[in-house]
Design goal:
single chain, mainly alpha, 2 domains, 13 helices, transmembrane helix, transmembrane, membrane, AI-2E-like
Length: about 350
C-alpha cells in the first residue's frame, strides 16, 4: 500500500512539474520550434563551421548563427531600400491619381440592374478626391483595428525572430548532446522502432523544406516577374505577399487571381488577361506538378495527407504548423503502417500454425 501511495505521489508531482514547465516555456514554443527546424536544415553549415574553427563549439555556433541571421536580415534591409523607392513613387503619383474622375469598367457598368446603380453612385463625384473625402472616415474607422493588429503582429514576429536566433545559438552549441540524450531516453521506451520514426521525421522535414518553402519562393519570384511585366505598381510587395500565400497549398491562385481581377476592374483588359494566363500556365504549374512530386517522393506519403497536415497545422499552431502539421500526420501514418505490418505478420504466423497442425496429427 505504501509503495502504491509513493508511486501515485511521484506521478502527481511529475505531472505538476510538467504542467508548470509547459506554462513557463509556452510563450517561446514557436521560437523553439523554428529554431529546431532551422538547426536541422542548417546543420551541415554548422559542421563546416566546427571544422573551420577546430571544434570550438561556442565560436562555431556563434558564427553559424550570425551567418543565418544575416541571411534573414540582409534581404529585409535590401527590400526596405527597394520599397522606399516604390513607396516614394506611389506618394508622388497619388495627387494625379486623386484628380482622376472615378469610372467603372464597361463590363461592370453594363451589368443588368446593378450596373446603372453603381454608375449613378460614381457619377456623383468629379474626382477620386471627393469620393475618398466622403467615404474615407468610415473606412478609417473600419480599418483602424485591423491595421493596429497588423502592427502588433509585426512586433511579435520581430520578437519571435530574435528569440529564434537566440535559441538557435544554443542548439548549435549543445544540440548534438541534447539529441543524443533524447534518442537514448526514447530508445529505452520505444526500442529499435525509434529509428524508423526518426527517419520519417527527417523525410517529412525535407519534404516541407523543398516541397513547400522552395516552391513558394519560386512562385513568388515568378508572380513578381509577372506583376512587373504587366505594369502593376509595387511588384516586389505583391511578390512577397504571393510567396507567403504560396506556403498554403493551392493558395497561390488567390494571390495572382486577385491582382488579375483588380486589373480587369480598372479597365486594363490586356494586363489582366495576360497575368491570368501567366498565373495559370506558369505559376500554378509549379504548384500543381513539382510540389506534389517532391513531397510524395520524399516521404512516400499521399500528397493529400501532407496538404491536410499543412492546413491543419496552420490552423492549430500558426506558421510553425507548416512543419509541425505534416510531421505529426507522418508520424501517425508511420505508426499505422507499423501496426498493419504487425497484424500481417501475426496473420501469417497463424496460417502457418493452422496448416502444420493437421499434418502433425496425421
Amino acid at each position: 500500500m505504501n509503495r502504491s501511495v509513493r508511486l501515485i505521489t511521484i506521478a502527481l508531482l511529475l505531472a505538476a512539474l510538467a504542467s508548470l514547465t509547459y506554462a513557463v516555456v509556452r510563450p517561446f514554443l514557436v521560437s523553439i520550434g523554428w529554431a529546431v527546424f532551422v538547426s536541422y536544415v542548417a546543420w551541415p553549415l554548422h559542421a563546416w563551421s566546427q571544422r573551420r574553427f577546430e571544434g570550438r563549439k561556442t565560436l562555431s555556433a556563434l558564427v553559424t548563427t550570425a551567418l543565418l541571421g544575416s541571411v534573414v536580415l540582409a534581404p529585409l534591409i535590401w527590400l526596405a531600400v527597394l520599397l522606399q523607392g516604390e513607396v516614394s513613387e506611389l506618394i508622388r503619383s497619388l495627387p494625379d491619381w486623386l484628380e482622376q474622375k472615378p469610372r467603372l469598367p464597361d463590363f461592370v457598368s453594363h451589368i443588368p440592374y446593378f450596373g446603372n446603380e453603381l454608375q449613378a453612385v460614381v457619377d456623383q463625384f468629379e474626382d477620386l478626391h471627393g469620393l475618398l473625402k466622403r467615404h474615407a472616415p468610415e473606412w478609417v474607422r473600419r480599418l483602424g483595428s485591423p491595421v493596429l493588429g497588423i502592427m502588433t503582429t509585426l512586433v511579435q514576429n520581430a520578437a519571435v525572430l530574435f528569440m529564434t536566433l537566440f535559441t538557435l545559438f544554443f542548439l548549435f552549441r549543445d544540440g548534438l548532446q541534447l539529441a543524443t540524450d533524447v534518442r537514448r531516453v526514447f530508445t529505452r521506451v520505444l526500442g529499435e522502432r525509434l529509428k524508423g520514426y526518426f527517419a520519417t521525421i527527417e523525410a517529412t522535414v525535407k519534404a516541407v523544406l523543398y516541397g513547400i518553402v522552395l516552391t513558394a519562393l519560386a512562385q513568388g519570384f515568378l508572380a513578381g516577374l509577372g506583376y512587373w511585366i504587366v505594369g502593376v505598381k509595387a511588384p516586389i510587395v505583391l511578390g512577397i505577399a504571393t510567396t507567403l500565400i504560396a506556403m498554403i497549398p493551392f493558395g497561390t491562385p488567390f494571390a495572382w487571381g486577385s491582382v488579375s481581377i483588380w486589373l480587369l476592374l480598372q479597365g486594363e483588359t490586356w494586363a489582366g488577361v495576360s497575368l491570368a494566363l501567366w498565373g495559370t500556365l506558369v505559376i500554378s504549374w509549379i504548384d500543381n506538378i513539382i510540389r506534389p512530386l517532391v513531397i510524395s517522393s520524399a516521404t512516400h506519403i499521399p500528397f493529400v495527407l501532407v496538404m491536410f497536415g499543412v492546413l491543419g497545422g496552420l490552423a492549430s499552431f500558426g506558421f510553425i504548423g507548416l512543419v509541425l502539421g505534416p510531421v505529426i500526420l507522418a508520424m501517425a501514418l508511420a505508426v499505422w503502417r507499423e501496426w498493419l505490418q504487425q497484424v500481417r505478420e501475426a496473420g501469417l504466423r497463424g496460417e502457418d500454425g493452422s496448416g502444420t497442425g493437421p499434418g502433425e496429427r496425421r
